[in-house]
Amino acid sequence: MSTENDVSASTAALIGELGQRLKADYNRMKRWRQFHRLTGMGFTLVLVAVPPIVAAGILTSESLFGKLLLLVVTIVAAFNSVFQPLAHSELRRQDMSRMRFLYDQFRADLADAADDDAKQIALFKDYSKRFAHLYRCRGKRLLDAFLASRQSTPEAASTDAHGAKAGRSDGG
C-alpha cells in the first residue's frame, strides 16, 4: 500500500509541475504580449501627436522642449520601425492562444484520468513532449526571424559568407 501511495504522490508531483510550467509559460507570453502592445501603442501615439504639435507651432522647434520632442520622435520612430513586428505580432498572439489551449486541454484530460496513475503518466509524457515541441518551434522561429533581419540589412547583404564585400573579387 505504501508503494501505491508513493507512486500516486510522485505522479501527482509530476502532473503538478507540468501544469505549473504550462501555466507559467502562458502567463509569461501574455505579459510580454501586453508589454509589446502597450509599447507599440505608446510609440504610435508619440509619432502621431508630436509632429503636428511642432508643425502647428504650438511648440517651436527652437525651444528646448521642442528640440527634445523632435529628438524623442526620432528615437521613437527608430524603435517603432525595429520593434513593430514584435508589437503587432500575430504569431505572438497565436502562440499565446496555442499555449492556453494546450493548458486547458491538459487540465481536461487530467480530469478524465483522475484516478488512474498509468493514464496520468501517459498524459504527462504526451503533454511534456507537446510543450517541449511548441517551445522549440517558438524559439526556432524567433532565431530565424533574427537571422533573417540581419541578412536583410544592406551591410549584411553586401558581404559574402567570408565577410568580403560583394562585387570585389580582388579583395581590395
List strands and helices in order, with pairings.
Blueprint lengths: L1 H54 L8 H24 L2 H23 L4 H35 L2 H4 L15
Helix pairs in contact: 1-2, 1-3, 1-4, 3-4
Keywords:
mainly alpha, 172 residues, 5 helices, 81% helix
What Rg is obtained from the alpha carbons, in whole angstroms?
26 Å
How many E strands? 0
**What structural class do you assign from the helix and strand content?**
mainly alpha
Total helical segments: 5
Please indicate the percent range of residues in DSSP E strands (runs of 2 or more).
Answer: under 5%
How confident overall, as mean pLDDT? 78
Shape by Cα distribution: elongated
Low-confidence stretches at least 5 residues in length (pLDDT < 50)?
156-172
Largest sheet: none
Task: Give the N-to-C terminal Cα separation.
Answer: 80 Å
Percent in helix: over 70%
Task: Kindly give the count of domains.
Answer: 1
Q: What oligomeric state best describes the polypeptide chains here?
A: single chain
Instruction: State the order of secondary-structure elements, H for helix, E for strand.
Output: HHHHH
